[in-house]
Design goal:
Blueprint lengths: L4 H22 L4 H12 L11 H7 L1 H13 L2 H6 L1 H25 L4 H12 L3 H10 L6 H26 L10 H20 L1 H10 L3 H21 L4 H11 L6 H25 L3 H6 L1 H25 L4 H10 L6 H11 L5 H28 L18 E4 L3 H13 L3 E5 L2 H9 L4 E3 L5 H6 L7 E4 L4 H14 L5 E5 L2 H9 L5 E2 L2 H14 L4 H24 L4 H28 L3 H9 L9
Helix pairs in contact: 1-2, 2-14, 2-19, 3-14, 4-13, 4-14, 6-7, 6-9, 6-16, 7-18, 8-9, 9-17, 9-18, 10-13, 12-13, 12-14, 16-17, 16-19, 17-19, 18-19, 25-26, 26-27
Length: 608
């Protein structure tokens, strides 16, 4: 009895991925190029193990959809609003300028204006899948170049609808198939997604979660993504754009981390399958028959886009290393070009030979992106070398995220008391240095849920946040607090602002320089002739006063006038308080100084 055809194809896809991806990762070329090459090898232009790549590419596009949904979950609405300038400013300028330059170049090369416009529409798009996947793989999404890339890709998704309208007008019959009813339907669906995410989805997720069946929650998560994708596609919108919007609206949900965990594995597999399908669509015979034309034009398009993107990034005040990252990340032609060219072929705007040539150019440009990233990395263009997170092979009662000066003191005390600790740090140089001194430190991003679970956080008795990035520290505290609410957290705050953020989460974080500054203030008073016991009491009173002011300003911190009023009143109260202490100190006998000198801790004694 023969096995079904889909099992044979599935085995082929998995075998190709398992062989190619580790090999290309080992060579430093990245997993994306490995998937693309694997697709070329098994596709109809090489070994012909798979004969119909179109059949799988539409299914695999859900990998791109899930990628945008997960990115949306990472962005809270206020963060998305913060990106409005690069989205509509840099994104809008990029689409218009790239489209105009590509159109002019195509007309100059002798193409009709209709064909030139179709080609320019495709060239103006960049690949969301390749660009974002490569940036995520190399951990560059959080850089200014990575954020700018994401913003522009999001605007490109927004621009698809007007470009489809232009494409419909290019049809020989001249009849547009997009009208005002389509626009109303699109706005209605977007409005429905917004309302449903705020009213219906959270109660539904709560009901599903209460079943206690993980597989049902996974099914609900996948149904959510598929349902939103189908709804927006029905009205002609980008599936990726719709699911990204749904992700942003659910970013502050208490189930966001469960959604991330459940969708991530499916996203990875489908995205890999999408890259394989793109590789299979490359017409190798056409490339070999016209190598100078196809490869030459692909190189020309990529070179022009790199120059344009770099110039635009610098125009928008993005520094050179990040501008290079941005230019390389978006230099390829995107997957929407396949859609544009396919519609143009169907309506008669493109003929078959031109359509085949344009598709081959798109595929070759995609193949060039991972190579350009690797080249930039070798040349040291600002993209840091990629290093995989370490596997954690121990589970201890205490997990410490960040092992710099602050974290080291905590760990030394805990270790001296007999508590074993698991140490995680994201700085590879710091990890290597500490290992040379005998510390077992794991390299990795403590914000990754899978890494925390690998470290045994579910059984841990304490979680210490000692990382030096304030925004990342607050985000990590929120993640751990929501997913493991009973786990005690000790957190490091760099400033009063960070302390406010932690208090919003119910944590009284330790300000990293506060207590050392109090000790310095004690020594300063002693140097100025203040009696020891009096200096100590003054600083303790200041400490309590500052904590009281911190608590009071936290409640009104968004009201600038109220904060300034409290601060001014606090300074006056403090002067009165310390003046009173000075008067009381003058009435005490000098014998207290001698007694204090014998009882104070060693680290508070004079060096003499």
């Amino acid at each position: 009895m023969s096995a079904p055809a889909y099992l044979h194809e599935g085995a082929i896809y998995l075998t190709a991925a398992v062989i190619a991806v580790p090999l290309f990762k080992r060579l430093g070329l990245g997993s994306v190029l490995g998937y693309l090459i694997a697709g070329i090898v098994i596709g109809p232009s090489a070994l012909q193990l798979i004969s119909d790549p179109e059949r799988v590419i539409h299914f695999a596009e859900f990998g791109v959809v899930m990628l945008l949904f997960l990115i949306g979950l990472e962005l809270e609405p206020k963060q998305a609003w913060r990106l409005r300038k690069p989205i509509f400013g840099l994104g809008g300028v990029q689409v218009v300028v790239t489209l105009a330059v590509a159109f002019g170049a195509a007309v100059t090369m002798g193409f009709s204006w209709q064909v030139a416009l179709v080609a320019a529409m495709g060239i103006a798009m960049s690949s969301t899948a390749i660009g974002l996947a490569t940036l995520q793989e190399k951990r560059l999404m959080g850089t200014p170049g990575g954020e700018a890339s994401f913003a522009v890709l999001l605007f490109q998704d927004l621009s698809v609808i007007p470009l489809f309208m232009v494409l419909a007008l290019l049809a020989p019959a001249g009849a547009s198939q997009f009208n005002w009813r389509d626009a109303v339907a699109a706005l209605t669906v977007i409005g429905a997604i917004i309302v449903a995410s705020r009213t219906l989805l959270r109660p539904l997720m709560r009901i599903v979660a209460q079943t206690g069946m993980r597989e049902i929650f996974v099914a609900f998560a996948l149904l959510l993504v598929v349902g939103v994708a189908l709804a927006v596609q029905w009205v002609g919108l980008s599936m990726a754009l719709g699911t990204f919007l749904a992700g942003v609206l659910l970013a502050d949900s208490e189930y966001r981390y469960e959604l991330q965990l459940d969708i991530e594995p499916a996203k990875g597999l489908l995205l890999g399958l999408f890259f394989i399908a793109v590789g299979m669509s490359v017409d190798v015979q056409l490339v070999l028959a016209k190598p100078l034309a196809i490869v030459g034009l692909a190189l020309l398009v990529v070179a022009i886009k790199v120059l344009l993107l770099f110039g635009l990034a610098r125009l928008f005040s993005i520094k050179s290393p990040d501008a290079r990252l941005f230019a390389v990340g978006l230099s390829q032609i995107g997957e929407f070009a396949f859609v544009f060219f396919g519609l143009a072929l169907t309506q008669g705007t493109l003929d078959r030979p031109t359509y085949n040539a344009l598709n081959a150019i798109v595929a070759v440009s995609m193949l060039l992106t991972p190579l350009l990233f690797a080249l930039c990395q070798r040349l040291g263009s600002g993209a840091p070398k990629n290093r995989d997170d370490d596997e954690i092979h121990e589970k201890n009662p205490v997990i410490v995220a960040g092992f710099g000066r602050f974290g080291q003191i905590i760990v030394r005390v805990l270790n001296a008391r007999g508590f074993k600790t698991t140490l995680v740090d994201h700085d590879p140089n710091q990890v290597d240095l500490l290992r040379s001194f005998g510390w077992q430190v794991y390299y990795g991003d403590a914000g990754r849920l899978d890494l925390l679970e690998q470290a045994g956080i579910a059984e841990a008795k304490l979680f210490v946040i000692a990382i030096d990035d304030p925004e990342a520290a607050v985000k990590l505290a929120r993640i751990v607090g929501e997913r493991w609410p009973r786990l005690p957290i000790v957190a490091r705050a760099r400033s009063r602002t960070d302390a406010y953020e932690f208090r919003d989460l119910g944590l009284h974080a330790v300000r990293e320089t506060f207590h050392s500054s109090l000790e310095a203030a004690t020594q300063a008073l002693r140097a100025l002739g203040e009696p020891a016991h009096s200096a100590w009491r003054m600083v303790r009173q200041f400490e309590q006063h500052d904590l009281d002011i911190l608590e009071r300003t936290h409640r009104v911190r968004h009201d600038r006038d109220a904060v300034m009023s409290l601060s001014e009143q606090g300074r006056k109260d403090l002067q009165t308080l310390l003046a009173h202490e000075r008067l009381e100190a003058g009435e005490r006998s000098g014998e207290l100084d001698e007694a204090w000198a014998h009882t104070r801790p060693p680290y508070e004694k004079d060096s003499s």
